[in-house]
Amino acid sequence: MQKTNKLSAVPDLRLTVAVFIAAASLAALVGCGGDSSSPVTPPTPTPTATPAPTPTPTTLTCSPTPPPLYGIAVTLRDASGYRKIIGARPIVANYGGYCGKVGFDPNQGFCDTRQEGDPARAACDALAVGRSGDTGRYGPTWYYEGGPCAQTGDTPGCENHPTDQFLAYAKGGGEFAACAAPSITIDPEGNRCGVIQLQ
Question: What is the mean pLDDT of each run of 10 residues along the chain (199 residues)?
């Protein structure tokens, strides 16, 4: 009877491990897009946070409400540098004794929407001019030499104020205008826009 070596019947453990590792590596390569005919799907980009716009009130409380707009007074607020600050103030016609009701002379032909310092003034001014056509905020649409305000760097022009649509930055000289929205009713003798000429 021939005696067999029991050790020779057992496969070499090192060879088994090596074969297993090679097979796993090959499977990983095939699963990771080794096949050039399969489409490559780019990773989904992480969304970038965008700054929230300046909140605009949904309801404006102003009683009595302003009558038709007579015009917009545009004034120089700060002339301390090349970039000046200009401001717009709506002027309304004195319909139905409105001016007297809000603290002005009842006999004058037109007046501000409210007295300076009145807590309702911001809302009343907003109702008097509507929303800007370029920013969507309550306040006039600003223009420079007939064109809309835009970021112009150091060249002459105008820029919208970042937080108050009733203010704008004027750079250089020329004609700057503030205009009410097209939906606003204008007094027959009034004007939708107010203008200031700067040197």
Answer: 41 40 42 45 40 50 96 95 94 98 97 97 98 97 94 86 96 95 97 96
Amino acid (1-letter code) at residue 122: A
> What SS3 class is residue 95?
helix
Q: What is the pTM of this model?
A: 0.69
Q: Domain range for residue 85?
A: 69-198
Tell me the C-alpha distance between 142 and 150, whole Å: 9
Is 91 a member of any domain?
Answer: yes
In a domain, 11, yes or no: no
Cα–Cα nearest to 67, from 105, 106, 98, 108: 98
Query: Looking at the 3D structure of the chain, how many domains does it have?
Result: 1
Cα–Cα distances in Å, from 39 out to 29, 34, 42, 105, 181? 15, 11, 10, 77, 52
Q: Give DSSP secondary structure letters for 25-84.
A: HHHHHIIIIISTTSPPPPPPPPPPP-PPPPP--SS---SSPP-SEEEEEEEEEE-SSSEE
| Residue 1 belongs to some domain of the structure | no
- For residue 64, how many C-alpha atoms fall within 13 Å in the half-sphere facing its CB? 15
Query: Does residue 188 form part of some domain?
Result: yes
